[in-house]
Design brief:
50 residues, 0% strand, rod-shaped, IS4 family transposase
Length: 50
Amino acid sequence: PGRIPELMRDLASMGQLVKLPTRRERAFPRVVKERPWKYPTAPKKSQSVA
């Protein structure tokens, strides 16, 4: 069959070396911060119906 099985074994062993460890949990999970405004805004007033 040639060298293909040997090369496949080498490729599989190299894959084990490159594999990253599992990700650990964060101590402080990510949160979406509130968007800062450039200038203060007054609350919207309801428009009267004419």
